[in-house]
Amino acid sequence: MSKPLLTILATACALALPALAHSRPLTLTAQLKNYGGDGAYLAAYLTDAKGAYVRTLWVAGGKAKYHKHLSDWSRLSAGDAKRLDGVTGASVGAGRTLKVTADLADALIDAGYEIRIDAAVEDMRDSPSEVRIPLSKANVGKPQAGKQYIQSVTFQLQ
Amino acid sequence: MSWKVIHRWLGLTVGTLAVVLGITGSVLAIDPVQQAWQAPAAPGDLPVATLVERVTRTVPGAEEIRHLPSGAIVVFSFAGDQPQAQYVDPADGRVLGAWQASALPRWVKNLHRSLLLGDAGRWGAASIALVMGVLCVSALVLLLRRMGGWRQLAARVRGSLAQRIHVVAGRVVLAVLCLTSLTALTMSASTLGLVELDTRAEPEVLSVLTGQPDLPGAQLAALQSLAVQDLRKLNFPGPTDPEDTWNVATAQGQGWIDRYSGQMLAWQDATLAQRVYDWAVVLHTGEASWPWAVVLGLVGASVLLFWLSGVVIWWQARSQAPHITGNSPLAQADVLIFVASEGGSTWGFAQTLQDALSQGGHRVYTSALENFETTAATRQVFVLAATYGEGQAPAHASRALEHIARLSASAVPVTVLGFGDRQFPAFCAFAVALDQTLRAQGWPALLPLECIHQQSGQQFALWGVALAQALGEPLVLEHVPRVPPTATLTLMARQDYPGVTGQATAILRFAWPAQGPGARLRGHGLARFAAGDLLGIVPPGSAVPRYYSLASGWEDGFVEICVRQMPGGLCSTHLLGLQMGDSITAFVRSNPGFALPRTRRPVLLIGAGTGVAPLAGFIRRNDRRRPMHLYFGGRDPARDFYFGPDIQRWLGEGRLATLETVFSRVPDGGGYVQDALRRDAERVRGLVAQGAIVRVCGSRAMAQGVAETLDMVLAPLQLSVSTLKAKERYAEDVF
Fold first, then answer.
1. Is A13 a residue whose pLDDT tops 50?
2. Please, which residues have CB within 8 angstroms of residue B438's CB and are 6 or more apart in sequence?
3. Which fold has domain B330-471?
4. A75–B78 C-beta distance less than 8 A
5. ipTM, two decimals
6. Hey, what CATH class is B487-589 in?
7. Do B197 and A147 touch (CB under 8 A)?
8. From the list B81, B83, B197, which residue is nearest A65 (CB)?
9. CATH number for the domain harbouring residue A85
10. B643-688 residue pLDDT tens
11. Is residue A29 part of a domain?
């Protein structure tokens, strides 16, 4: 990379930093069980105190045809045309770990918001709301088990 | 590119991968069969409400009821933290045992649909399915061509064992294989995102809190009126979410039901794409019906059979194909040889010519006639052309004449050498037509048109002498014809007839040696044959085979021919001189146009002299007792009524319906066979009007007389021999 370009990048980052001061990165780690099936489709998303959909954090599994099996997420996020923008990846194999990060506004923490994960595996049963973790400082780093496919989920805030 | 080329190369290349898909598909078909035995199917008219009532009694915390395509009922629930999936008896809700989606390891399915290569592999598998579809279509075209149209599709298949396996199996499973590839493509289209099954969002509906308790599933009107046969799955409202709804999916669509009021809050009809997809899945997997799964399993395994037999067929064709050695590149060749050959023997002559010219220092390029062209380097062109049937071009050169007629002539001499048989009226007709076209176009010729009779090596050598003179070079054409692989036959019985005018005749019966399936698969040894096919015999002291009509079929277990002494005939003398236990080398050449199609229609058999042999073979194998009527013409019942006692016996057994004999050399013998036909005109008309199939065997003169007589006899029906021939109801075997 040329020097002027690096300079521009550095300046841009410096300017962007103050904006980031109001938000913090959230790291979500989900360890899957050995459930003996193909790769799992997972949708991690945020709901507010009333249970209404706020935003999608991550969707693992790229085939739109199967997204309806993530039924809660699919229904709740139907109105969000950008729900898949920049937050998709491959499905997660049995026994593997999914680790995703997202920037969260400070205001969302300890305000009744919830991280939810829907899970689905081909030929196995769908698991809407496999995990629900209230987004509170108290839950940071606290592993939580899923209903069928997820061994444990933890989230970290920086 | 021809269908044959497409079929062969796709089959040999992509077909290898199709075998993997076929075998894995075959293994996957085990699942539906096995599942069919695990749990009883629910009665189709059982109301879903009743089923829900039974299930809630026996499975506390049921979350979902699935009606499997096999008809069985599976209930999903949680036992504490443990998710459970269990078969349930629809009659009483009793839990029958744990359910698993598949008893097979997952890699089988993944190998089948993605070759274990993820998404890229899915594209690969879909491409293989597409190729499979092309293979099926090309197979159908080739099958129809080989069998002679739809109506002949069920007819007997000829050829080597591998060819028969390929064609017979193809006839049986082609439709299912085609359906399988079509359904595979349908499924792939949605999985690969080429087609969206349903782009609609689910309706946002919630149960309306009224303060009342949940309505039990058994009391939901929507479920009372829904029969289990239409149910796909039913999701119970979640216990922790008071606004959750019932969700019911049927073949027709999906509905959401309020848990308190029981009202249908929303309904979405299944899209057309979704219905098509559902059907494709059912047809492709056989999950709804285990007998269909068995069929699919067998068809999947058959892909291996097709591939193996296809490879053998390709290998056979390769080793039998015209194989010209020592070709120079076209652009550098000063002599070009173009060949039109039906049976392949003309290629042998071309090779002899090529070798002789190459030895003389020429650079020679030999190719098939349809590739006719000249280059700047060309100095001489030779066209070696055989004639097929009634003066037509050999199949591969069918367009060659038009092609040549479009070219503008150059100063390069083009010499035509025809190959044919003088016994046919259209002797070398195609070569004649070629020569006329070339001259009309203005091409000069080095030598005038010459026609070789019956692949005569002598005549070819003589033409070589003329050629050497014209070229002003020493040139010797010594042709040794290639004979198909032969088998050694041993004489096991002979029946002698004194014949007429001193021409002894005998019916010779030979045994063939036992041959292993390997040899038969490769087309070695004696090919399978039927009465009416030809036995090629190479007599000692000659390289040119003579052909005799077979009076027996493979099922008879012996090879039988009727041989008459020809004056000075090398082969007939050899054959008639055979003692018991002596052996000959021979091969079978099929005569598909003469074989009898498999129908119940009456058959009119007309034979004279030794020409009765193939007809006797037809009658001998007439186990189904279809009405066969024989007109036999001889000279003297005491001397040349070949197969006489057999024919009488077959008449008694009902293999032969009626027999009419005429003998020309005895008083009141009835004259010739055509006289008998004329006398029986009314009856013959009746048989033909019933759709009779006619087979004529005898001398050329006799066949011509019969055809003329029948033309007269059939005129009142507005029919003629040529119209019957066009409908493949009339065939001759003449000598």
1. no
2. B383, B404, B409, B414, B416, B445
3. Rossmann fold (3.40.50)
4. no
5. 0.78
6. mainly beta
7. no
8. B197
9. 2.60.40
10. 999 999 999 999 999 999 999 988 888 899 999 999 999 999 999 9
11. yes
